[in-house]
Amino acid sequence: MANRREDLYGKAATAFIERYGTKVRRGPFAGMRYLNEPSINVLVTKLLGIYEQELYDVIENEIIPARYKRIVNVGCGDGYYAVGLALRMRKARIIAYDIKASARRKCREMARLNGTIDRLELEPFCDTGTLQDKVKRSKERRTLLFCDAEGYELELLDPDLVPSLSHCDMLVELHDFIHSGIKRAILSRFEQTHAVTLLKSAPRDPENYPELQGLSLQERSLCVSERRPAGMEWVFLKSTAEKD
Questions:
Q1: CATH architecture, domain defined by 50-239
Q2: Residue 217: C-alpha distances to residues 64, 180, 229 (Å)
């Protein structure tokens, strides 16, 4: 059954790319050029411009206007956010981490493809000491932490070990399905220093995307699915500390 779904998705993805190419079609990163690699996770969802669309209001209304000088992206994957935010925030330097060499390669190639490689720094691993150094406060720099760390956020986002997080805005994907209690722990750590906005995943209706017409219902459903094991939540933590 899983192989059949993969075959159907591959067929649908090929048809989509043949018709529309590999530029993101909508959302905050519309126009971003993408790699045409079958191994990229949920590629059609990203090309449609609906990947993690629950975050788009925060990105457009909070993150882009903030004009961050530095963005630290822990768990960058293929570069959807590292490169997308670099395109939208031309003065920001992006420091991206991923433990997978294949992900770092894709992110690097995405940055080259979109002309942002000169503002991208790629590293394999970020621990609490590294994070403290990267997000420490300065008068010249505002920092955003964008974190999708597959449960490692519980260990990494510790204000006792990374005190500069109190002055840092953060958008964090919460992985309670990996470690129960992550959400509760993160909120309790930062509720005194940050304004908290919780975001919850919502279903996608394939009928809303005319690009998918001509595909079967199952193919269309696969194209808008993010293949997650459970409903997801994110939290946007906006520092309430006085800005310099």
A1: 3-Layer(aba) Sandwich (3.40)
A2: 36, 35, 21
